[in-house]
Design goal:
single chain, Rossmann fold, Taq DNA Polymerase, Chain T, domain 4, 1019 residues, six-stranded antiparallel sheet, alpha/beta, six-stranded mixed sheet
Length: 1019
């Protein structure tokens, strides 16, 4: 191997690219190249370039202060460069450095401070170059490059520095680099071991703590699993029991509701019939009509009887003997009878007038009684309805109390306390037809119980009222904040579909001030006939409610089934305001009952008056009858006397014809009288029938009143029972809601999900035992305490980290042991090589010393010292307090190394001929130079370098010693290529080629090359 080529560009004074090609070996001898030139021409820059490309890092060795000082800094005629580059090419045909046959090393530096290394144009590290140079025994700080002053430095340097020089000479530099790298790795490994041990010391206590927590957590999880299982059994058992009871109550409620509807229908029928009877034609009008008809018939009969009496008197007088009694007496008697008849007629007219007056008074009294009777009946019906409403209100109030709306009830009862206006529930503010009630109730949902208030301030006060008193939760809709919702664009098309009944908003009647409230509640909800219609319209196109109360939400959710009436519906009229409406009902009932009692008293007084009028009328009618009889007697007597008087004035012939005519008239009158009596009998029958019907009507009214009272009692009983069932069902549903809330709080799962898992239920007698078991398990959990479930993850991570650190620590210890073994092997190898080479160098040193001094003696002596004890690479992991031990094996400490001796340096002994020198400082300058050259030549002879660069090393020698020096060079050239910077002509004559370095006015160095053989041949 030899230095084949050196290329310099931008390095110091070599601004232009300059190449130095060196002669190859010739035969068994390497070339000697001399570089000559005047001082300041840049000769030494070539040596610096070689030193720099071989990896020199010391700026002082390169005769600079900053890294950019090696870059051409410019001159008066040439600008400075931004980069310096040196390439050194080695011929490796002998394979000394492996492959390839030529090795080029390039170093490049930019003015920015960035530097690069290349090996065969491939980027490389300085370490890679140092290894290659070590293998070839070329180094920038050893005997391979001997600069100015280095010859003296070899002797005045320390023993340790000479040791390093000898190490390179003995060929152990490569192994020293490897040892150094191994020691660096060993140091880093020791640091890593110490760090791993520190980390283990930190991790192990945490791992122990986490291990205990994980065990506690595992125990807690087992207890929680048992608790969860017990809770699910407990809640599922209670829920299913309650649900079964609710279903039983609902079945019973359906029967009671049916009974209530039937009983209430009967009660309504009785009330309606009673009202109808009360509103029917009054007894006064019918009675007056029948009385008039009867009186007309009686009068007609009396007139016929009077006429008949006259007729009979005339006939009787005809049958008497026609005598000539005193006409004057007859006329006087007739006159007296006429006077008596007139008096009787006047008395009869007065009696009839009185009778008519009494009849009118009686009819008026009967009208009053009939009116009071109707009023009494209506009062009775009204009281019955008020009692039904009161019972219904009480039922609904009780349901309201137990249906989870106690907060709403509290707000409505205290609505005067909030400073704003509370309008009431949504259910109260909308009027809905019976046909659409279920649909709109379902569509409104929970908003039925929402409270509409004037503004958000009122809502705020009401909410604070509920919170302060812990009364529950209510929903408020403030009119000043609530925003309505407009129907979608597709709603018009949907409303045209079959069986679509309209928008929900359009089926509710409400005050215009609540427009936004109902718009917010219903939005674009439409009402359809049934789910079939909803599916035909398309589930999801709009929110739809059916007449059966089923819902199809816009997102596709469907709700439906059997709905039990719970009292809270649109247009509800029971008391949402607590006791106030109930007291109002009771007050009205008490008032109506008092009015009914007053009416009964008035009716009784009027009946007493009517009885008095009836007695007076009877007396008057008897008087009329008596006067009629008296009149008829006077008529008959007068008629007889008149006939008798007339008979005295007719002839016998006229008498017979008259008698016949009277007989015919009597027959005719008897026929009319018979007809009149028939009319009287018929009129009497009608009066009797009317009286009988009136009596039946009265009895029916009494019967209806009694039946209505019984039905009212029955309805009240059914309502009371229904109320009890509803309250019981509401309580159970409240229990279910509370149970669901409790289950959600305790288990984090809805009770429906628990029931779906179908956990095992327990008998009723075991519920208390199960509850005790749950409490015990909770107590166990409280004793265990709360542990974050993330501790498992952290434990796994900590365990993994601990295992990783333990594994890394083991690997590091193994690597440390391997490195220590490697260092020991390298030490042993270097020691053997050093011993072998040192013996040879000592011998050659003495030989070359004697050649150069022409006698004398020289030697090398090794200096050994004891090595300081090394600290252990790692420490054992200590325990952390009283925490429980981890199952991992403890880390053992690395044993300390024993003390041993090491080569501290090399001492040089030089005794020129005739002298015995104790100290090298006693040698003269020339003697030190010759001694140094002898040492360098001994080293080159024992371990030749591929090439050696010398920078004016013979400058201090005289011509004779220079000749001796050149002879030694010629001997050493058999194994080493020499490049010498010199001014000595003897040295120049010993060279195979000369390179001249010049510098022109531009400050740039240039080369001139001369091959000695060619020059001599040409000369």
């Amino acid at each position: 191997m030899y230095l084949k080529r050196l290329e310099i560009q931008g390095f110091k004074s070599f601004a232009n690219k300059t190449a130095l090609d060196f002669l190859p070996p010739k035969g068994d001898r390497f070339s000697v190249t001399a570089v000559v030139g005047p001082n300041g021409s840049g000769k030494s820059n070539i040596i610096d370039a070689i030193r720099w490309v071989l990896g020199e890092q010391s700026l002082k060795a390169l005769r600079g202060k900053r890294s950019e000082d090696v870059i051409f800094n410019g001159s008066e005629s040439k600008g400075r460069l931004g980069m310096a580059e040196v390439t050194l090419a080695l011929d490796n045909a002998d394979g000394r450095a492996g492959e390839p046959e030529e090795i080029s090393v390039t170093r490049r530096l930019y003015r920015s401070g960035e530097g690069e290394y290349f090996v065969n144009n491939v980027p490389a590290r300085l370490f890679d170059i140092q290894i290659i140079l070590a293998k070839t025994q070329v180094a920038q700080n050893s005997y391979g490059i001997i600069g100015q002053g280095m010859i003296d430095q070899l002797l005045i340097s320390s023993a340790a520095d000479r040791r390093d020089l000898l190490d390179e000479a003995t060929g152990v530099k490569e192994f020293q680099i490897k040892k150094h790298q191994a020691e660096l790795k060993l140091a880093r490994t020791a640091e890593n071991i110490a760090q791993a041990e520190r980390l283990l010391q930190e991790v192990e206590p945490r791992l122990r703590l986490l291990s205990r927590q994980v065990k506690k957590l595992e125990k807690r999880q087992a207890v929680e699993m048992s608790l969860r299982e017990a809770q699910e059994q407990y809640y599922a058992t209670l829920y299913l029991r309650h649900q079964a009871e609710i279903e039983r109550l609902e079945n019973e409620l359906r029967t009671v509701e049916e009974n209530y509807r039937n009983a209430f229908a009967d009660l309504e029928s009785s009330q309606n019939e009673l009202s109808a009877l009360a509103r029917a034609e009054s007894r006064q009008e019918a009675f007056v009509s029948l009385q008039t008809k009867h009186q007309t018939a009686v009068k007609e009969k009396n007139d016929l009887e009077r006429e008949l009496a006259i007729m009979e008197g005339r006939m009787q007088s005809e049958y008497r003997q026609v005598g000539k009694e005193s006409v004057g007496w007859l006329e006087k008697k007739i006159q007296e009878l006429k006077s008596g008849r007139e008096q009787t007629a006047a008395r009869l007219a007065a009696a009839e007038s009185e009778t008519e007056r009494l009849r009118r008074q009686l009819a008026d009294q009967q009208g009053k009684i009939d009116g009071l009777t109707v009023e009494r009946t209506e009062k009775t019906v009204q009281i019955s309805r008020l009692q039904s409403a009161l019972t219904q209100n009480q039922s609904e109030r009780d349901f309201f109390q137990f249906s989870g709306l106690s907060a709403v009830k509290a707000i409505l009862e205290a609505k005067e306390n909030f400073g704003g206006k509370i309008y009431g529930l949504v259910a109260e503010l909308g009027e809905v037809g019976e046909e659409h009630r279920q649909a709109l109730d379902a569509a409104a949902g929970g908003y039925l119980s929402a409270i509409v208030v004037e503004d958000d301030e009122t809502a705020k006060r009401a909410i604070e009222y509920l919170r302060e008193r812990r009364l529950g939760v209510a929903t408020f809709l403030p009119l000043n904040k609530i925003q309505g919702r407009q129907p979608g664009a597709d709603i018009e098309n949907i409303l045209k579909e079959k069986d679509v009944l309209g928008l929900a908003m359009g089926l509710v009647s409400f005050s215009s001030k609540f427009q936004n409230v109902f718009s917010y509640i219903f939005g674009d909800t439409i009402v359809v006939r049934d789910l079939t219609a909803a599916r035909r319209v398309g589930i999801g196109r709009a929110r739809m409610a059916t007449l059966d109360g089923d819902l199809a939400e816009k997102r596709g959710v469907m709700k439906g089934g059997w709905r039990q009436s719970r009292g809270l519906t649109f247009s509800s009229r029971f008391s949402w305001s607590g006791e106030e409406r109930a007291r109002e009902f009771e007050t009205r009932i008490n008032l109506e009952q008092q009015n009914l009692r007053d009416l009964e008293k008035r009716l009784e007084a009027e009946r007493q008056k009517m009885s008095s009028f009836q007695v007076e009328l009877g007396t008057a009618e008897n008087k009329i009858t008596m006067l009629n009889g008296e009149e008829q007697g006077l008529v008959r007597e007068q008629s007889g006397l008149e006939k008798e008087l007339e008979g005295t004035r007719v002839s016998p012939e006229e008498y017979g014809a008259l008698l016949t005519k009277l007989a015919e008239d009597k027959k005719r009158l008897l026929a009319k009288l018979s007809e009149a009596e028939a009319v009287i009998v018929a009129a009497s029958a009608e009066v009797e029938e009317f009286n009988q019907k009136e009596e039946e009507k009265k009895q029916r009214i009494f019967s209806l009143q009694e039946a209505m009272q019984k039905k009212q009692n029955e309805v009240n009983t059914i309502l009371s029972h229904r109320n009890e069932l509803k309250i019981e069902a509401a309580k159970l549903e409240t229990k279910q809601e509370s149970l669901n809330e409790e289950a959600r709080n305790e288990t984090g799962t809805a009770i429906s999900s628990i029931v779906e898992r179908n956990p095992a239920t327990v008998p009723a007698e075991r519920l208390a035992e199960l509850a005790d078991q749950i409490q015990k398990l909770k107590y166990q959990l409280s004793l265990i305490g709360g542990i974050d479930e993330e501790v498992i993850k952290e434990h796994e991570q900590t365990r993994e980290r601990y295992d990783f650190l333990s594994s890394q620590l083991a690997d590091l210890k193994g690597a440390s042991e391997d490195l220590e073994e490697m260092v020991a092997d390298l030490d042993d190898l270097m020691k053997r090589k050093r011993e072998t080479a040192f013996k040879k160098i000592r011998k050659e040193f003495n030989r070359y010393f004697q050649i150069l001094f022409d006698g004398g003696h020289a030697d090398l002596e090794e200096i050994y010292e004891e090595a300081a004890p090394e600290a252990p690479l790692g420490q054992a992991v200590e325990g952390a307090g009283e925490t429980a031990a981890v199952e991992e094996e403890p880390i053992e400490a690395t044993p300390k190394k024993k003390k041993e001796k090491f080569l501290a340096g090399i001492e040089v002994i030089a005794n020129p001929p005739g002298k015995k020198i104790k100290s090298l400082n006693s040698l003269s300058g020339g003697e030190r130079t010759l001694t140094s050259i002898a040492l360098v030549c001994a080293i080159l002879n024992c371990n030749p370098s591929p090439f050696v660069i010398m920078d004016e090393v013979e400058a201090a020698l005289d011509e004779t010693n220079t000749v001796r020096f050149t002879k030694i060079l010629a001997e050493l050239a058999a194994h080493t290529q020499f490049i010498i910077v010199t001014h000595n002509r003897v040295t120049m004559h010993a060279a195979d080629a000369l390179y001249g370095v010049t510098m022109s006015g531009d400050g740039v160095s240039k080369l001139l090359s001369v091959k000695i053989e060619e020059a001599e041949a040409g000369g």
